[in-house]
Amino acid sequence: xxxxxxxxxxxxxxxxxxxxxxxxxxxxxxxxxxxxxxxxxxxxxxxxxxxxxxxxxxxxxxxxxxxxxxxxxxxxxxxxxxxxxxxxxxxxxxxxxxxxxxxxxxxxxxxxxxxxxxxxxxxxxxxxxxxxxxxxxxxxxxxxxxxxxxxxxxxxxxxxxxxxxxxxxxxxxxxxxxxxxxxxxxxxxxxxxxxxxxxxxxxxxxxxxxxxxxxxxxxxxxxxxxxxxxxxxxxxxxxxxxxxxxxxxxxxxxxxxxxxxxxxxxxxxxxxxxxxxxxxxxxxxxxxxxxxxxxxxxxxxxxxxxxxxxxxxxxxxx
Length: 318
Prior knowledge:
Blueprint: H1 3-33, E1 44-50, E2 62-67, E3 88-91, E4 103-105, H2 109-122, E5 129-135, E6 146-152, E7 158-164, E8 176-189, H3 190-227, H4 287-313
């Protein structure tokens, strides 16, 4: 197998597993978003909430709920009977009424049907609590400030267009809002739930994209690993000093009677030829003859020196 396959296949498998884990993690986010009790407040006649927008991208707000049934209008006044005698106020920290700017109460039959759709999609329409208002929906997540209209563009293509009919809720970050009622109310944190839904969607898309890219990479690694041929092995010529080429030692004929120093490629630096024991035996000493010759030369030298001294002292020879 080519080196690209040996490296690419394990990497592709690891990336594929990571993508699967990321996609699987989205399931827990969606499951957590379905736990309604995690976003619901306790029943009370007065609730104080602080508006926080950590990412500064807007909020889906809170659903204001009372114990009642949807679409009940026994007196025919186009208003649900649950709103008869209902008194809900929304004030800021200074006590100013912000019921028309930071939140809205919806009691008409048409609006009540819209609230029923939100309850069915995001809360629990069978729990005996009815959505009667929305607070701090700055994103208009409930789509209560407009409607979708089918129209055609300049090219004649048909599409849906959002028509704005009202202003979105305006809430200040860090402001405390007090919601008071003459009967028990609950607040459902729609913004927190929507955040989990968005996170789950991102995890799902990211995991699927990572898995697809990993699968493509893995297929390419498998193909390249089995189709591409390994690079040829480099062959080096044998030098005069011998060596190993391609993992095979060269064959050199050796004379069984030769010493190690006579075989090419086997010489060792600092080592001499084998020692011949017979040649190392000392020869008989010739010391006597050497001394006789030295004495004879000494006597001749001294005799010649004496004759020269005598001639130098004889005045008759001057």
